[in-house]
Amino acid sequence: MSEVEIEWPWQYSFPPFFTLQPHPETRSKQVSAWKSLILEYCQKNRLFIIDVREAHQLPLFHNSSINRKLDPSVIISILSELSKTGNAAALDKPRHRWEVYWHTLEEWASMIYEYVCDSGMQNSVLTLFELAQGDDVQGRDFAGIHTDVLIKALRVLESERKCELILSDEDQGVKFF
Amino acid sequence: MRRRAGLGAIQKHKLEQEKYKDKGNEIQENQFEQMTKQLEVFKVNLEEFATKHKNEIRKNPEFRRQFQEMCASIGVDPLSSGKGFWSVLGIGDFYYELAVQIVEVCLATNYKTGGLIGLSELRSRLIKARGKGKQHQEITQDDLIRAAQKLKIFGSGFTVVPVGKGQYMVQSIPGELSMDHTAVLQQVTHSNQAFVSVGYLRRELGWEEGRARKALEHMVQQGLAWVDLQNLQEKLYYFPSLFNACIDSSSDF
Predict the structure, then answer these.
(1) Which residues of chain B have a CB within 8 Å of the CB of A37?
(2) Is the same domain home to A23 and A86?
(3) How much is the pTM?
(4) Does the residue A133 lie in any domain?
(5) Do B229 and A19 touch (CB under 8 A)?
(6) Is there a single domain that holds both residue A60 and residue A128?
(7) Which CATH number covers residue B200?
(8) Between the CA of residue A101 and those of A84, A166, B111, B132, what are the distances in Å?
(9) Residue B245 · residue B121 · CB < 8 Å
(10) How many domains does chain A have?
(11) Which of A83-97, A140-154, B12-26, B133-147 bottoms out in mean pLDDT, i.e. has the lowest?
(12) What ranges make up the beta strands (E) of chain B?
C-alpha cells in the first residue's frame, strides 16, 4: 500500500513519544496526541484495520529515522482508549486485530443515509458492493469503506429502522427506507 | 499580537487554570475571599479595583501573587488595564507590553514544554507575533530579561533562569527548580541535543549517580522532561522546551 504524505506532528520526531511516560500529566498529553495521530493516519491512508502484531510495519508506530517503536502493549492500551469514544473496536479476544473508526459507526451511518436520501434511493435495494465501490459514491467519504465496517454502520441504521440488511451466501445487500 | 487572542489562550489551557486553582488559600484567606467576591464586578472596573488595593499590591508579594493567579484562572489579564495601573507600580509602557506578550507566549506553549522556554525561542516567537514594523524587530534579549523580571513582582510565577554562556530560560509554571536542576538545564542547553542522561551528568558535572538521577527524575515529575527507554546504553531524559521541532510547531496537539 503506498503511503500518503502525512504531516507528522512534532511528537513523531521526539524519541520519548514512543516510550509510555511515567508522569501522569505528561502521559495524558502523550496518549491524547497518539489518539489524534492514529485517527489522522488511518483516515489519510484509508486504513480500517490495525493488527497490533504487524504494527511496526507502519511508519505510524515505527519511526525508523529515529529508531523508535511504540510497544504493542502500549498500542493496545491506546486503541482501548479510542474504543471508549467509539473510535476503535477489538475484533478478537487477545485484542490483536482492531477496527479503527476515524468516523464513528454512527457518523458513517449518518453519511450513508444522507447519500441515500440525496440520491432518492429510499425504497430501493443496493448491493453492498455498489454502496461501497459504485461509481456514484466516488467522492463520498465512505467510498471504499471496508465491508465489515459498512455492515456495522448499516446495523446502526437498521436499529433506527432506516434500512434492512439482506445477507445470504450469494448476495450481500441492503434495502433503504 | 492581539490581546483578545491572548485571553482566548489563557482560557483554553485548562492545565494552567487547574494549577492556579489548586494553589492553596492558606495565606491571607480573608483578603483572598474578599478579592474573589469583588472579581465578579471588577472585570470591567479593573483599574478602580487596582487603585483601591494598590498599596496592598505594592507592599505585599503574596497578595500580588494571588491577585495574578485569580485573574489568570478567570481569563482576565490584569496587565491590560491601561497605563494608570502600571505607572503606579513603576513599569514603563514598553516593558509592560512586552511582559504581557511574554505571558501569552508562555501560556500558549506551556502545555508542550511543561512551563519552560528558552529565551531565544521566546524572542523569535515574540518578533513573529509583534509584526513587521522595524520597531518591533529590535527586541533584544536584555529587553526580554528586564520585562520577564518585572513579572517577578507576581512571585514565583515567572522566573528567569540563567543556564550559563549568556543563555537564559524563562520558567512560567511555579515549581521548585533548585541549583541542581538549573545545572541540568545548563547541560541540556550546551549539549545542543535536547537530552541528557545520568551518565552524561556524571561525566560533565562530576556528580554521583544518586544525585544525577534524583535531579532528572524530579524534572520528569515536574512535567519538564520526558523519558526515553529505547536507547541502548541508558535511559535518556528529553526536554521538549529545548527540542526544536516542539518549539517551532504551532499545532494544537
Answers:
(1) 253
(2) yes
(3) 0.70
(4) yes
(5) yes
(6) no
(7) 1.10.10.10
(8) 12, 23, 27, 44
(9) no
(10) 2
(11) B12-26
(12) 116-118, 159-162, 168-171, 195-197, 226-228, 236-238
